[in-house]
Amino acid sequence: MKAHSFRRVLLCTALSLAPWLAQAATADKTIALSNNYAGNAWRQNMLASWDATGKQAVKDGVVAQVDAFTTAENQATEQAAQIQNLILQGYNAIVVDAASPTALNGAIKQACDAGIVVVSFDGTVSEPCAYRISMNFKQSGVAQMDYLAQRFPQGANVLEVRGLAGVSVDELIHSGIVAGAQKYPQLKIVGTVNGNWSQTAAQKAVAGVLPSLPKVDAVVTQGDDGYGTAQAFSAAGRPTPVVIFGNREEELSWWKQQRDAHGYQSFSISSAPSISSLAFWVAQQVLDGKQFPHDLESPAATVTQETLDASLQGLPKGGIVSQPVSVDDLARLKPAATAAN
Amino acid sequence: MNASNPLPLAATQRPAPRERARLLRSALPGVSLAVLLVAIFIMQPRAMSYLGLNLMLNLAVPIALATMAQMLIITVNDLDLSLGSFISFVACVAATVLGPHPWLGSLALLGCIAVYAALGALVHGRNLPAIVVTLGMSFIWMGAAILLLPSPGGAAPAWLQGLVRIKTPLLPLAIFVCMGIALLMHAFLARSTLGVILRGAGGNPQAIGRRGWSLLRIKAGLYGLAGTFGVLSGLFLVGLTTSADANIALRYTLLSIAGVILGGGEFVGGRVSAVGAVLGALTLVLAGSLLSFLHISPDWQIGAQGAILILVLALRAGVNRLEARP
């Protein structure tokens, strides 16, 4: 019979597609990225990573649609409105790099109540129904001080360059630096400035505070500020201290140049911008029905004197050290120690 | 026109086109909002529901309240550059002090209003430019907010969260609140005697002063009222977001100015419209939604938002010329 053979063909097709279907149970799902800021190298790299992963996933039929939305003014209220618009547009999952860990909670809760999977990363949100993926920022502050303690066993004057005042990541890294200063009393914080995670702002801020400071042996930073800091020192004609970098290409190039010229040594640590791809895969897997703890810790990317050349290899201008992320990398994610840190 | 007998004709016919232009002018904010709404409903039919309207408009209420505050300041020819940081500060107070110590919190908020009234008195008494005074205040509010809440957090009192989430019948709460503010303030400013005097203080302060009204009290009163709306805006905002952040409402400074201007207000004292200002605030919020539904690339969104603003203002300039034509 015609209908019978037709059914058989259907069955055969279904069987041959079975391994495929297992992976593509999310083939009709849509995922959106809500991003609060795109004005520095890290965010640009993060968006590029999201874009690449998303396009590939759509091409492979893993999901139906992947979009990215960035707010114009880095304001929590604007992003809350944006998330509410995304709910209206019927996305199945919303991935968020949040302007504030708390001010979006109302909108995030509305998304969860509408049955939407919410995954926050980098700038995470404290609303319990969302997933959080973040580097251990406090630990990254401690790691900087660990390195300096080993470089300066006799003690050193340290300048701290902080990020944007009132933003949680800045507070977390700062708490790590403070903890490090308590752990190593020989490291003395002689000054603190806000570099706002921008090379130019950092250069201006450091140049402004330098005349009032004693000899500075080392500078701890938060990323996107190490190069500007080093420039401020050389412009003021002061000896270049050990500046801890944040994995940016310009910083690493400068480091390499200084190393080749007079054996400059340093250390670099930052969150890898491919964390956006990690968040994408978590969202996709949760849509697929997999279980994850709600607080996940992503590994930090570091560059040492030994790995400097290898890290610079193939790093594009304006790039940041990162590693491509695939769905298999989710296995490496550790549950974070405490909720929202 | 009829040259042989101009006088009676001029008296009966000339006002007609000017009336029409004035009508057109006051209808413009409403018309632009309606056009935006229709465009949104076509783009995203899901928005045409209780849930959809609620999602799109609930964050418009604090902006509408902020716009109302800004409008009161603009009434007397001044501009408030501290409004955004003031609202952020109020949100921080509400998220930290108001819950555990309701009396202390309420007292602090009343104090905020008193500070605003004092600012009005200062601006008038010392004849200082309001822009400079409020710019200075913006740093003070911002610093106070960071001192109160160094890192984002806190929790809005449960009653406040419940209040802003009330599910009203037929239409979402946001629409009722916006209509309420608009009509109340319209009745006050355009229909009451006091309102006329307040607007007059912006349009022709000398005349009002000569009539024996105290300009100091008028300015202090208007600033105090603006502070009250600022406090309401902060409370409503923190109720929606559930917790605060020292930077939470910085954007409201410029949004509120844009809202007043979009709604037909002018930087020439006394020419403001309460209904228009609320419609202007809603237009700004919905323009953001429309751009998001259109899938316009984020790089272009800021520019597109500006283009919508310029378009509406250009339309108004056209209407104004129609009105001015003899």
TrEMBL record, chain A:
It is found in: Periplasm. The lineage of its organism: Bacteria, Pseudomonadati, Pseudomonadota, Gammaproteobacteria, Pseudomonadales. It holds the Pfam family Peripla_BP_4. Residues 31-291 form the Periplasmic binding protein domain. Belongs to the bacterial solute-binding protein 2 family. The keyword Kinase does not apply. PANTHER family: ABC TRANSPORTER PERIPLASMIC-BINDING PROTEIN YPHF, D-XYLOSE-BINDING PERIPLASMIC PROTEIN. Residues 1-24 form the signal peptide. It comes from the Bacteria. This is ABC transporter substrate-binding protein. Keywords: Signal. SUPFAM superfamilies: Periplasmic binding protein-like I.
From TrEMBL, chain B:
Keywords: Cell membrane, Membrane, Transmembrane, Transmembrane helix. It comes from the Bacteria. It comes from Pseudomonas typographi. It is found in: Cell inner membrane. The chain crosses the membrane at residues 23-43, 55-74, 81-98, 104-123, 130-150, 170-189, 220-242, 248-268, 275-296, 302-319. Belongs to the binding-protein-dependent transport system permease family. AraH/RbsC subfamily. It holds the Pfam family BPD_transp_2. This is ABC transporter permease. The keyword Glycoprotein does not apply. It is a multi-pass membrane protein.
